[in-house]
Amino acid sequence: MKIEILNTGTELLLGNTLNTHGGWFGKELFGMGLRVARQATVPDGDAIREAFEEIVDRADVLLITGGLGPTSDDLTREIVAETLGIELVQDEAAMRTLEVFFSARNKVMAEANLKQALVPVGADVLPNPNGTAPGLYLPPRINGRSNCAIFLLPGPPRELYPMFHEEVKPRIKALAGVENISDVLELKFTGIGESDFHQSIDAELAAIDGLEYGYCARIGEVDLRLIGKPEVIRFARDLAVDRFSGGLISEDGSSLEATVVRLLAEKSLKLASAESCTGGLIGSRITDVPGSSEVYTHGWITYSNEAKASQIGVDEALIAAHGAVSEEVAIAMAEGARKESGADIAISVTGIAGPGGGSPEKPIGTAWIALAAEGCGTSARRFFHPRNRLDFKESVSQSALDMIRRHLMKI
């Protein structure tokens, strides 16, 4: 079944409102054994008509969001009805719902709201208990132009999502008749690039009958997506994990920071951090994870040399001799953070984010990361992430979290 999404609203293209509908629909439909074939976003006005005329002739199901409100730029129902040659009539049930909605709030219904009770002849009205704009379903039998089932849905997520679950999902299930739903497994890896997969196992994955696979690359991370029957996914999963076991973050979609928090909790260990070039990003990522308060004790942002010395006891002579971005200072930062916090493990980062401050010996993108752990001493590694300032911080935080993860996997 070819399902397409048409999001309407000038605000979505101006960047004032983040359009999250495509991703949300994708997940919901995949759980039903279906896929989104295409997604388009258009501004209010004639662009809706142009996109609708194109999509309705090729799609089996069309989900249109937005443009059902009372204002002059809410034209979706009018455009759809006009294009299909279907008359709009006032629906009494929709009108009563509007009256009850405003009465319950002790408000007078504006005349502009009356258009929200207009319904194409033969369409089903989809109740909206969370707003004034009812949804509409135009089944294929009333579509004189094509065999496309059309859903007109409100734009706000608080109205759209409940309506989809209650009214849209059952209708799409009936139209699709899908019985066998494929499984999906998402493996997250770090320290591995897409090219590594391509060179090592891509040909072997391609040879597995009944397997659909794909990659999604982010800074310092690659997701391997496996789709198919359970036995097919298990075979492909074992192949990937056997080849890249050291870089496997999770098999359930958990982030690197969530994996670190889980491992710390399982081993009843506490973590502290001392950050310079990342400006607190490591601590921020860790504390984004529910339950992090049980394992994360302290976080220092020692951006200046004075802060390194006064807050976590780094010897100023050490900084003068080796520079703030050095193995020696990174080690001193980690050991100082562990001593001051009493944590079992401390991670430290110091580096050159740019665009200035680099040298031939320490070019922009250089970072030193150190990990101090009870009973294991302190280790440090040099990393080189020559990126823009924000991506550099993300890359260094990724390397630091992975350093913690690898340490925890060994103990």
Automatic annotation (TrEMBL):
Protein name: CinA-like protein
Leader sequence residues: none
SUPFAM superfamilies: CinA-like (SSF142433), Molybdenum cofactor biosynthesis proteins (SSF53218)
CDD domains associated with the record: cinA (cd00885)
Organism domain of life: Bacteria
Lineage of producing organism: Bacteria, Pseudomonadati, Verrucomicrobiota, Verrucomicrobiia, Verrucomicrobiales
Domain MoaB/Mog: 4-174
Pfam families attached to this UniProt entry: CinA, MoCF_biosynth
Similarity remark: Belongs to the CinA family.
